[in-house]
Structures are given as C-alpha cells and as structure tokens.
Amino acid sequence: MRVLVAPDKFAGTLTAVEAAEAIAAGWRRQAPDDEVVLAPMSDGGPGFVDVLHASLGGELLAVVAEAPQGHEVPATILMVGDTAYVESAQACGVHLTGGKLGEFGTTVGVGRLLLEAVNAGATRVVVGLGGSGTNDGGAGLLAALGADADVSLDVGGIFLDGVTTADLSIARGMVDGIEIIAATDVDNPLTGLFGASKTFGAQKGLDEEMQVLMDGILEQWAAATDRRLALEPGAGAAGGVGFALLLLGGRRVSGIGLVAEAVGLAGRAREADLVITGEGAFDFSSRAGKVPAGVAAVAAEALRPCVALAGQVLVGPREMRALGMDAAYSLVDAVGEERAFRDPEGALTELAARVARTWSG
C-alpha cells in the first residue's frame, strides 16, 4: 500500500521534517514493501520555512534578524522564484523570550526579514505567523519599514500606551507593488475577548491584569491606525503581526491551506491508501486551523482514511471522529512520558511500527 506521512512539528522535541522521517522509518521497519511518501506540514508557525523547502526546494538565504529583546539572531528566508517565504517566529518566537515579558518584546526583526526578502528581489512575500512571544500589534515591524508615531513603535507593546497618531506612508512605500500574504492558523481579531492579548497573552507571560492593560493599549493602536482592519480575521495572529501586514495591504490566508496547496497535498492524498498526520498534543484545539484537522480534511475529500500519531491524545473517540480522524495513537501511552521526551525520535519510530501492524495490508 501507499502511505502518505504529513505531520506537523512535535513542539519542543521534533521538527515536522524529523517527525515525518521517524514515522516513515518505523513504518518501513514493519512493512518494508509499502511505499511511504513524506509531506511534512506547517500551519505557519515554527518550521514553516523548513517544511516548504523540503517540498518546494528553492534557495535558502541566511540572514540576521533582531530578536524581541533587541539582540541579533540567525534567520532564513526561502526564495522560490520571485516568491519569498518568511517565518516570523525566527524573529519574534516564544522560544526567544522563554514565554516571559511579552509586553516588552518587539517585532522589529520581522520587519527586517520582510525588507531582506524585498531586497532579494521578491515580488511576493508569504509570512508564516505563529508561535510568537510578542504582543506589540506589529508596531515594531512597521517601525523597521519606516513608520512613525507620537510614541516609540520599536520597543514593545507596552510603550504604545498613549498613541494617538501614526504615519505609515513610508512603510507602505517600502513594499509598494509587493504582494504580501499572512499565513496563519488563527483567525482572531487584534483586540477584544478573542483578541491577541486575551487569547494568547498567558503563553507570552502576560498575567490577567496585563492582558487587560495590553488589550486597551492595542485598542489605542487600532484607533490610531485602522480600527476596521483590527477586527479582520487574523489581525491578532502573532501578537498583532497579522494586523501590521493587513495595514501594509496584505491579505490573510490559512497557513495549513497554503502549505497543503504548495506541496500538492490533495493530489498526494488521492494517490495514497492511508494518510498519517500528527503533532505534539492532539486535543480539541486541533480543530481550529491546525495541521491534523487540515490534513484530515484533505484525506476526507480524497476518500482516504486518516490517522494521527501524537505525543499525547487528549480527546475521546467521539471528538476524534469530529476532527476527521479514523484513529489516534499516543506516544506517551505507548512508551511512557519519560521515554517520549528523552528519545522522541526513537519513540515515534517505535509507535509508527506498531501502527503499521494494524493498518498495513
């Protein structure tokens, strides 16, 4: 049989590429006659560039970005023809902040990555959003492109307090004629109950009081720029980087949808007998634009069964089927939590071999 392996990253342990290779190794060990096709996936967050490079090829450009606290960090831009793929997490990811003090983090580095892409000759820039540790409404990104305001834009969201006017003309001129696409797994607005601060603030180190404060500050930022765009789906992605890209004339698309189209996932699924996906934690949040749900939807359209291999499976059979899965298998249940974290690659290979005994042939 032909097996299509299309997992997301296992956050903190394996990249999507590593996870796909581990699953393939285990499957081939148990069912050597099966054809295993790899299509590692991403929803726009960490690993976005690596996943697309694995499937599309292209040229990787090594650049230097600015981290949320201002120090330099290495980053990579993928050029495929005149399209550049940029991963915002490389410059503002939560792994760079340790999940702390998100109100002080800046997205200046994301703006500089965007400029590097334009200077490399891109006429279309796709920015993957997700896994951010910042909450500045994308103000730092715009500052890197020349935006100005009556407060400092490049030192973190907390310092937007009191903003009343902003001039984005230079920033917009820097990307004039460039198609900008924000690829994200969330459709949250910038502010409000489901906005960037209240929905994602806790994972960036914002306590409840700071979440309320930052939501009010981002309301001020929206009023100074474009309150209508602040309500658009995806404006709250990556702490408001989505909003900044909308202000520059960009448009938001589903991250998993974009990657699926780029790697030809639908065609590959139609040629397969079984589709395998996976991620670190398979829970009910997986339904909202995440890789497993996106892959399952593609498998369903192709009338192919889909199973998930995950670090943890936190949904029951009924919820699993609602997410489009025929079955889901937990790494922690199979090998224990200690082994799953100590040797994630070996443990995932072992789990895949067990699953192959059930599904192969």
From TrEMBL:
UniProt KW keywords: Kinase, Transferase
Top-level lineage group: Bacteria
Coiled coil stretches, renumbered: none
Annotated Pfam families: Gly_kinase (PF02595)
Protein's UniProt keywords contain Transferase: yes
InterPro entries cross-referenced by the UniProt entry: Glyc_kinase_flavodox-like_fold (IPR018193), Glycerate_kinase (IPR004381), Glycerate_kinase_RE-like (IPR018197), Glycerate_kinase_sf (IPR036129)
Family to which this protein belongs: Belongs to the glycerate kinase type-1 family.
Protein name: Glycerate kinase
Source organism (scientific name): Nocardioides aromaticivorans
